[in-house]
Amino acid sequence: LRLSFWVAWGIPSSFLGMFILGSFVGLTVNMISLFGMILVIGILVDDGIVIAENIFAHFEKHGNPVKAAIYGTIEVVPAVTTSILTTIVAFTPLLLLTGGFEMLKDMAIVVIFSLSFSLVEAFFILPAHLSSKHVLQIKKEDTRSYKIRKFLNGIIDFMKFRLYGNALKFTMRYRSISVAMVFGFLFIIGGMLAGGQIPSTLFPPIAFNSLNIEIAFKPGEREQKVESYMAKFEDAVWKVNEDLKSELETDEEIILNTFSNVGFSSYGSGSHTGGINVFHAELDDYPINQYDLINRLREEIGPVPEAEKYAVGGRSRWGKPVSVKLLGKNYGELAEAKDFLKEELSKIPDLKEIEDDIPIGNREVQLDLLSQAYFLGLTHNDITQQIRQGFFGEEVQRFMKGNDELRVWVRYPSSDRKSIDKLEDIKIKSGANEYPLMQLADYRIERGVSGIKHFDASRSVAVEAEMVDPFGDANAIIGKVEKDIVPVLLARFPGIRVDYGGQSQERARSSQEMGLFFMGSFVLIFFILMINFKSFYQALLILFMIPLGWFSGILGHGIETWVSELPKPVSMLSLWGMIALMGVIINDAVVFLAKFNSLVKEGESVYQAAYNAGIARFRPIMLTSLTTVLGLFPLIKETSFQAQFLIPMAISVAYGVLFGTFLILLFFPVLILIFNDIRRGLKWLWTGEKPTREEVERVLIDQRRTEEYREIA
Questions:
Q1: Are residues 560 and 592 part of one domain?
Q2: DSSP 3-state assignment of 366?
Q3: 689 belongs to a structural domain
Q4: Same domain for 441 and 560?
């Protein structure tokens, strides 16, 4: 009990140090930082168990608690340091994130600071506490606690030797079957992901506790019209509220309140636009979600043919799932390309609410000059200037009257300015002559634009769309757009370039960061492993376990999708969870391999050392995995808004650790033997002599070289 207490003491002491350092960098206690604490608990316990077990083993051999604490700690310093450093490096990319993923920094800070303090606690404080005979000595008294401990140890020993031991012997004996089963597992998971049985998307749809109903008419529309529609929308909202209360048989309000706004929306500002913010209750206790509520509201409101733009939906942290930017110099060509793209997107049944980001402008008179105007030397500006002088007027004189300055303007009389038809009667001067406007130009009335957006030194128009199924695969839709629509658009409008915004832009930025940071941390981890184990192939052996953990995390999304009401697709958040999972998997594999090397160095055969390393690591790996998984499962089932950002990561880590644990315990020893066979085969090809298993193990090669150097010295 005392031994267990001091091992467990490493958790609060490491967290205390983390909080002290975290206060200097603005760390707060929130759902994200708590997620980091859950992740790191298993690693903290595992490292404490490794040191305590080794100290206890030395104490049982020699009986001196002080020497046992010293030599037992020194013996495992390389393995524990390597596992801690590789885990810190694995979490470092999360510390460098920007944009929408910057929130994950708190998790990285918690893990990195906790592990840093755990090194001090594990190498100095824990051995000091375990250097007492009273702590290490087990009193075999006929007490209740002793009987309980004996009963629990009996259960663990049964699982360790009878269940796990026999399974491990089978996998090690039939290595080809084991490899086939693992690769079959990988291919099945990959096929399910590619086939859609395990859903995937760019970013998971995360519902806020509010939604918006927005509308925009033609500019210049009176406020009274917008207000009347706002009233209709509010009536529809409260009708849906009453219908849902009746269907769900509850007296609680589903819709809490609404906030109407005339004059401003995401479509711009002006008397022609407006919107309603609808705030609803938490829907976790009801058999509906926000997307069901949005569909009910859309059905209740019905079509709004008078509106230029109209949408009912929630907000998204990542932008629209489909967002295509059209770039060009010629605005007319941009407008045509925009209309073509909207028409093509409307043919995709998985998309809805296809809109562009061009602000609706006022009606304008567009002039097209005729040949007579060019013959007379008149320009577009000459004609429009004279039209403006006639309708708007021009200042011709100023004079003083007392203390007041009076301005004299000349323009057509009001009777000639009341109708647009009067344009046909305008005379345009050219030199000493006058010509009817209709002889010089044709005119048409069109909607102008109230603003022009620019991107990358070009005019830009964005066409965006929502998914009909918010959990659908946006990747597939974007792939279809890139393959089938964009080439036709570029061929028809050669002056147009295409870029992507919304979730695609966030994915590209995140993928760039992930590739850069992940490759950097991956290479650094590889070098740390090679330095510690002094072996290229043993470092490769550990890294080979990482994809197995990732595929386990992907399987976790499939399991959660099958058992949950809403899909849990693999997303960018899931991938960052797999980066964090990498640290946990490497930590277990490093300590396992260190134990294997230690047993080989003590004289055991490679086969027996692989088996005994699994037996020795069974209890700590199972305990640390259980602490991590049990700590994360409540978060996976959490329904709060903040938790929605962490659930994809929690699924990746929890299921990656859950299945990765069994893969490490059952397949990692097999992998050790397979790599040993490969090295024996390579040496046989190189020298013509087939070595024993032990002769190719790096730890024994180094031991022989050390002995040779000592003899020479």
A1: yes
A2: strand
A3: yes
A4: no
Query: What angle do helix axes 31-62 and 606-636 make, rounded to 10 degrees?
Result: 150
402/562: higher pLDDT: 562
Phi and psi angles of residue 458, each rounded to the nearest 5 degrees, phi first: -140, 155
Q: Are 500 and 486 within 8 A, CB to CB?
A: no
550 within a domain of the structure (yes/no): yes
Radius of gyration of the chain from Cα atoms?
Answer: 36
Within a domain: residue 302? yes
Same domain (yes/no): 500, 525: no
What kind and span of H or E run contains 271?
strand 268-280
pLDDT digits (tens, 9 = 90+) for 322-350: 888 888 888 788 888 988 998 899 888 88
CATH code of residue 296: 3.30.70.1430
**Count, residues in the chain:** 713
Global pTM exceeds 0.85: no
Distance separating alpha carbons of residues 38 and 111, to the nearest angstrom: 9
Q: What's the one-letter identity of residue 534?
A: K
The CB density around residue 666, as the number of other CB atoms within 10 Å, is: 19
Nearest CA-CA partner of 308 in 352, 261, 357, 351: 357
What's CA 464's distance to the chain center, in Å? 21
DSSP 202: S
Both 215 and 325 in a single domain? Answer: yes
Q: Are residues 471 and 594 in the same domain?
A: no
| 695, 702, 707, 708, 709 from 712: Cα distances, Å | 21, 15, 9, 6, 5
Distances 58 to 44, 48, 70 between C-alpha atoms, Å: 22, 16, 10
Two tokens at 496? 């147009």
Q: With the CA atoms of 414, 419, 422 and 423 taken in that order, what torsion angle do they form, in degrees rounded to the nearest 10?
A: 110
DSSP states of 368-434 as a string? EE-HHHHHTT--HHHHHHHHHHHHT-EEEEEEEETTEEEEEEE---GGGSS-GGGGGG-EEEETTEE
CA atoms within 13 A on the CB side of 311: 20
* Tens-digit pLDDT profile for residues 357-399: 776 666 778 888 888 888 888 888 888 888 888 888 888 888 8
* Two structure tokens written together for 53: 């077990």
Determine the residue type at 562.
Answer: W
In total, how many domains does the chain have? 4
Which two tokens mark 280? 């609803």
Q: Which domain holds residue 495?
A: 210-351+460-504
CA–CA separation, 428 and 444 (whole Å): 18
Lookup: tokens for 176: 């080809």
Structure tokens at 348: 């995709």
Reduced to 3 states (helix: H, G, I; strand: E, B; else coil), residue 327 is strand
Q: Which residue has the tokens 């109407």?
A: 260
Question: How far apart (Å, rounded) are the C-alpha atoms in residues 41 and 28?
Answer: 18
- The predicted pLDDT at position 142 comes to 58
DSSP state of 96: T
Q: What are phi and psi of 494, to 5 degrees?
A: -65, -20
Among 112, 138, 164, the domain boundary falls at: 138
> Rounded CA gap, 232 and 538, in Å?
70
Q: Which of 395, 436, 392 is nearest to 416 (CA)?
A: 392
User: 660: domain CATH number?
Assistant: 1.20.1640.10
Inter-residue contact 354 to 463 (CB < 8 Å): yes
φ/ψ of 465, rounded to 5, equals: -150, 150
Closest CA to 502 of 337, 323, 334: 323
Which tokens in the block code for residue 169? Answer: 């012997």
The chain-wide mean pLDDT, for the chain, equals 84
CB of 276 closer than 8 Å to CB of 260: yes
Going from the C-alpha of 295 to that of each of 119, 299, 302, 314, the distances in angstroms are: 54, 6, 10, 11
Residues 6+ apart with CB under 8 A from 527: none
